[in-house]
Every structure is written in structure tokens, then in C-alpha cells.
Amino acid sequence: MTSAQDFSHRLLQWFDNHGRKNLPWQQPATPYRVWLSEIMLQQTQVVTVIPYFQKFTERFPDINTLANAEVDEVLQYWAGLGYYARGRNLHKAAQIIQSKYQGELPANFDALVDLPGVGRSTAGAILALAFKKHYPILDGNVKRVLARHTAEPRWPGEKQAEIDMWQLAEELLPKQRINDYIQAQMDLGATLCTRSKPRCQACPLQSDCQAFQLGTPTEYPIKKPKKAVPHREIRWLVYAAKGQLLLEKRPSQGIWGGLWSFPEMPIDNEISHLLSKNDIIRFQNLPDIQHAFTHYKLTISPIYIELDNPVFGVADNDKQCWVKMDDIAALGLPAPTKTLVQQLARGF
């Protein structure tokens, strides 16, 4: 196992030669500027953030100016960065800092994570970069670096995996130059240990990076396991009579809201009563239809029921009607309904 001293030494040596040291929020790295940059950099790349940060700090150069502004104006300067809750939370936090901490960002972990929009990793970054306190971070870049270096076999979002990764991040902290080390971690993930096409040959951690040794760095971090997709089964009652089909308008809420389809029933409902009608001239089970939604899969089992005439007790309300085959195309139909109607038109 790599020693923490060796890990941080190589990373800092690389940072001295290749790290980013002239970003706007580093000149100077005041607590306010570091906090602002960390909020802006959440889910947004450095190259995108830079012009917004510069305009924002010209208008709001300190916490009190930000706190005294109207939220609508703050959001005007945020427009285009996306994730606007960040801008609203930033403004709320500035007002809290103004009233509770005399306009000075607190150098206390618990106080920071109590601020709107500040989580554990953001608080750690502020404390390390602005106050040079020994706190780890675990943003997306650092998770990627650590997951690859250890070939972490679990999805980092898994509770125990995240706990273990935080512990590792803390164990690797150096005794000196904590601010440079935290910046180095972020820089390495952003410039070399990238999601795709990582530049492993230039990485200072390559010699004992387990993912590199395995030859599969891009397989880490492990992706979130896919949840088992729920499966539903229903039965369609496909009533036909003299070139017409019985269709039913679906409720406005729910799947296929407001579209026309066939009457349906639960798959396990008794169907013997459907066969007792004297006017049935043909009854046939049609092939199942498989349809996938975002959150579940649906199996439709259609039953074709041909009647002598298009008069039947099921069509006694305003949500069901008999429609000529030639007229059905003009209605709004779900894809599986349309497919089945086309099959019926061809004589299935």
C-alpha cells in the first residue's frame, strides 16, 4: 500500500510543475472567492465558470454586497450557469453570514455545512484552500482518482464505499501544503485522470495505480448498479365487429393519457364470462406485446373477440366507441395500439 507521504509527495511534485495556479479565484484566494468558486464549480467546468466568476465578483466583490442585493439581480449574474438553486442558496448563505458572522465566512466545518448549498466536500475545499486547514474533499475528480488508484470494486455512492473513500481521503492528507495538495487532487482529475481517455503515461500516480496496472482505468469508478426494472402485465380486449374496433379513451393522467387504446383488464382477472356471449363468432389469443417505459416494462396480452354486430354492453359510456378501421389512423394512439391495429388490418 502506498504511504500517504509518498502519495502526497508525488502529487505535489506534479502540481509544482503542472498544476493550475492562476485561476481567478486564486488571485487572491480569499475565503469569499474560494467559496464562490466552489459553488460555481459544482457540476460545471472551470472553462465555463471563469467568465461568470469574473463578472460576478465585479458586481458582488464581497459577502456584504452579495447579501444586500436583491435575489433577482444575483440570478441575472448567474444566468447561463444553470442549476439556479446554487445562486439562490448562495444569496441565502450570504445573508446568514452577514447576520450571524459579521459578513466573514466562518472557518468552522459545522458552521460551513449548515450554510445552504454547502456539503461536506465543499466545506472541506473551503477550509483547505482558503484557511489551510486539514480537511479532505471528495468531489467527482477526487473520487475518480482514488477509485482508480485503489481499483475500488464498489460503486462510490454505496454507503460503506463512500465511508471508506472518505477515510482514505483523510488518511492521505499531507502534514504540509494542504491547500496545494487539495488543488493538486482536483487538477489531476480535471486534466489527466479524466473520465474518458485518461493520460495515464503522464500521471505521477501511475506506478502504483491499480486500475492502470489492470489496464482498465476507464472502468473506474464503478458505475451505479442498475435497479431491477419492475414488470407489469395487462390484458387487452380487442373487440371487432363488421370492420370496426372498440376503442377506449384513456384517462388524462397516467400512461398514454388522453390517447385511444383497447379496453384493458388485469392479467389475472377471470375471463370465462367473456366467452359466454352468444354473439361471439371468433375468439383468439394474440401474441404478447412487449413495451418498455422509463421506469417499468409492460407485457400486453391481447384477446381478439369478434362479434356479429358492433353492439355490446361494454360500449355504453362516452369513453368507449366503435371506430371503423379506416378511421382509426386519425386518432391519437399509443405505439403498441397502432402496431396491433396495423396487424389486424393485415388480417394478423
What composes the largest sheet? 8 strands, mixed
Radius of gyration: 31 Å
Instruction: Tell me, rounded to a whole number, the average pLDDT.
Output: 92
Task: Name the quaternary structure.
Answer: single chain
Terminal-residue CA separation = 66 Å
Binned, the helix content reads 40-55%
List the helices and strands and how they pair.
Elements: H1 4-18, H2 31-40, H3 46-59, H4 63-68, H5 71-78, H6 85-100, H7 109-113, H8 120-131, H9 140-150, H10 159-171, H11 178-191, H12 210-214, E1 231-241, E2 244-249, E3 260-261, E4 264-266, E5 280-285, E6 289-292, E7 297-307, E8 320-324, H13 335-345
Task: Characterise this structure.
It contains 13 helices and eight strands. It is of the alpha+beta class and 348 residues long. A hairpin with a 4-residue loop joins strand 6 and strand 7 (297-307).
Summarize the structure.
By secondary structure, the chain is an alpha+beta fold. The protein is 40% helix and 14% strand. The mean pLDDT is 92.
List keywords for this structure.
single chain, alpha+beta, 13 helices, 8 strands
